[in-house]
């Protein structure tokens, strides 16, 4: 019964096995995932937790004809391995390799592209309704969603619709009590009670009240039980709901014991699970600059509130939570709620720091406009992971924030050049701004060892000159200023090149810009956001409004979704590395 996985290239091979062979296959699949992720890195715990479910689904359902949608996608590694990508799984999340998330362009077995949470029920319901309209009444549609994701508003909207539909939809709740951080909220507490209270499971059940046929909870690692239950559900028409209990990190002791760390542990020993020790950096992650600074400020200002949608650890807001739990709120995967919650607190004189990854703020765009900016409420948005984030790829790149925020009235937009500037703008923001402000900063390490300097107030809308020059002016926005300085320093024309850090894209420092346009023939703008509608567009608009005739070149992320790969590779690919910028300025006449 050895090496079953070697003979499986797709689900049709899987279906040739006897049911009693499947538990052994689960062991092999789990070992395969551990073996690859140990050396290539990636998301680990979520996929280990659904190995048995993945096998059962592909064994019983006719995928890809039956449509299977994985929520978020952190849990889909086993799915990828069983659906034709085993031989190239080692390229996962690497430049030119397969994506770390399901992707429609990658495989016909990936019914829906995912990366952000809580989309699976809506997508699968849409597919199920479409099948009904086409007369495909025997086709199955399955959404696999976690207990953290199902608490999101979008998931509730989909449940509300699905319950009154006639769609042939199966929702599988993968309940492991954790997302990246532990799940929070009243629904999580309810699901915990359901596990031990049969009355809740069979009578006073929220899901049953929404017109679903509810089954469970059952052990999600009991393959024979899973297969029996799924086989029975295949014959049940309409919306149905299977609640399974799993252990995130199942099969690797360290991952089971430390589920937060082993969500994405980096490199580790595949036998012991011990993480590879890295040399301690002399520099600090930007998220930790934020976390340590807001804690320092909160110790002196009791009006400061910290809010995050399920990213306490990732944002380092956990540092404030540990000391001030009554003023720190993890609202779960609920970005819209996080923003309007902050707005409500701002009306009462509190100072809310709403920390949301740049890519996730997109999900709360209406709330930023309608509930914050329109009412001119001084919410402080801290946009972590701005710019290119690397291996997580296009669903997670913070590429669009400058462009989609710049058009909103009343909103200040700032990007720190370094850790000291981030520290100082956080200090400035809590002194009492009249407007909301968005502060965007990147993933990863800074470059200043001694960044915890005495606080200095930053003047809103004020840019600075980093280097004088006579002919060419390079205008940068954010931490890409370091790359610009490196490029200019190695240029043959460095004496003719000036470098300005505008710091604010809204409001622009128009006084400084008039000086720049009058003094320099050529102006180059550089940003780590999209060029369409971003920082460079703001400079072009300024030049046009004031009838300047300078040559203006706009550099940034091109009008395309950028693939996954490490950040330095991606910046080189799109020409935003120091070497490419040096060539550019050297070739300007």
Beta-strand content estimate = 15-25%
Indicate the mean pLDDT. 94
Radius of gyration: 26 Å
Low-pLDDT segments: none
Total strand segments: 17
The rounded distance between the terminal residues' Cα atoms is 71 Å
CATH class of the largest domain: Alpha Beta
Strand order of the largest sheet: 7-6-8-9-11-10-15
Q: Specify the structural class.
A: alpha/beta
**CATH H-level superfamily title of the largest domain:** Thiamin diphosphate (ThDP)-binding fold, Pyr/PP domains
Count of distinct structural domains = 3
Categorize the overall geometry: globular
CATH topology (level 3) name of the largest domain? Rossmann fold
* Largest sheet composition: 7 strands, mixed
Number of helices in the DSSP assignment: 25
User: Can you name the CATH architecture of the largest domain?
Assistant: 3-Layer(aba) Sandwich
What does this 3D model show about the protein?
This protein is an alpha/beta fold and 589 residues long. The protein folds into 3 domains: 5-263, Rossmann fold; 286-440, Thiamin diphosphate (ThDP)-binding fold, Pyr/PP domains (Rossmann fold); 464-586, Rossmann fold (3-Layer(aba) Sandwich), CATH 3.40.50. The protein contains 25 helices and 17 strands. The longest helix is centred in the N-terminal third of the chain and has 19 residues, at 22-40. The radius of gyration is 26 Å and the shape is globular. The protein starts with 10 loop residues before the first helix and ends with a helix. 51% of the residues are buried.
């Amino acid at each position: 019964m050895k090496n079953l996985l070697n003979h499986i290239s797709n689900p049709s091979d899987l279906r040739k096995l006897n049911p009693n062979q499947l538990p052994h296959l689960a062991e092999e699949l789990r070992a395969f995932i551990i073996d690859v992720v140990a050396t290539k890195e990636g998301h680990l715990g979520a996929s280990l937790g659904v190995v048995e479910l993945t096998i059962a689904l592909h064994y019983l359902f006719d995928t890809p004809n039956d449509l299977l949608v994985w929520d978020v996608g952190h849990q889909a590694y086993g799915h990828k391995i069983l659906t034709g990508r085993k031989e190239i799984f080692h390229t996962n999340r690497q430049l030119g390799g397969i994506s770390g998330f399901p992707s429609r362009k990658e495989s016909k077995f990936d019914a829906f592209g995912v990366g952000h949470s809580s989309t699976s029920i809506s997508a699968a319901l849409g597919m199920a309704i479409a099948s009904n309209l086409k007369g495909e009444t025997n086709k199955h549609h399955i959404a696999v969603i976690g207990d953290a994701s199902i608490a999101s508003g979008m998931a509730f909207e989909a449940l509300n619709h699905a319950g009154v539909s006639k769609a042939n939809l199966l929702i599988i709740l993968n309940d492991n009590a954790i997302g990246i951080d532990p799940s929070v909220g009243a629904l999580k507490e309810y699901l915990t009670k359901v596990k031990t209270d049969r009355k809740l499971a069979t009578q006073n059940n929220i899901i049953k009240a929404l017109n679903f046929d509810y089954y469970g909870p059952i052990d999600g690692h009991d393959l024979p039980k899973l297969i029996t239950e799924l086989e029975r559900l295949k014959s049940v028409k309409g919306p149905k709901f299977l609640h399974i209990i799993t252990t995130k990190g199942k099969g690797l002791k360290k991952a089971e014991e430390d589920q937060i760390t082993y969500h994405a542990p980096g490199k580790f020993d595949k036998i012991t699970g011990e993480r590879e020790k890295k040399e301690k950096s002399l520099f600090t992650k930007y998220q930790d600059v934020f976390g340590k600074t807001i804690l320092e400020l909160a110790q002196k200002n009791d009006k400061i509130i910290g809010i995050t949608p399920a990213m306490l650890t990732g944002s380092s807001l956990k540092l404030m939570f540990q000391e001030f739990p009554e003023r720190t709120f993890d609202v779960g995967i609920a970005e819209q709620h996080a923003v309007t919650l902050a707005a409500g607190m701002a009306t009462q004189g509190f100072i809310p720091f709403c920390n949301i990854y740049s890519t996730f703020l997109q999900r709360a765009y209406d709330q930023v406009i309608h509930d914050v900016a329109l009412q001119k409420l001084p919410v402080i948005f801290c946009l972590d992971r701005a710019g290119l984030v690397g291996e997580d790829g296009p669903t997670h790149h913070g590429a669009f924030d400058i462009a989609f925020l710049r058009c909103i009235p009343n909103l200040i937009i700032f990007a720190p050049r370094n850790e000291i500037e981030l520290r100082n703008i956080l200090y400035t923001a809590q002194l009492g701004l009249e407007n909301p402000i968005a502060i965007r900063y990147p993933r990863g390490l800074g470059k200043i060892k001694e960044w915890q300097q005495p606080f200095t107030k930053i003047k809103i809308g004020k840019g600075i000159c980093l280097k004088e020059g006579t002919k060419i002016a390079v205008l940068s926005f954010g931490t890409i200023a370091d790359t610009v300085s490196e490029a200019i320093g190695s240029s043959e024309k460095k004496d003719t090149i000036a470098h300005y850090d505008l710091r604010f894209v809204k409001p622009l420092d128009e006084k400084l810009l008039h000086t720049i346009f009058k003094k320099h023939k050529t102006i180059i703008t550089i940003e780590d956001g999209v060029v369409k509608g971003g920082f460079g567009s703001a400079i072009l608009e300024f030049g046009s409004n004031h009838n300047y005739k300078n040559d203006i070149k706009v550099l940034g992320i091109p009008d395309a979704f950028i693939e996954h790969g490490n950040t330095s590779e991606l910046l080189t690919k799109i020409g935003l590395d120091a070497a490419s910028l040096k060539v550019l300025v050297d070739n300007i006449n």
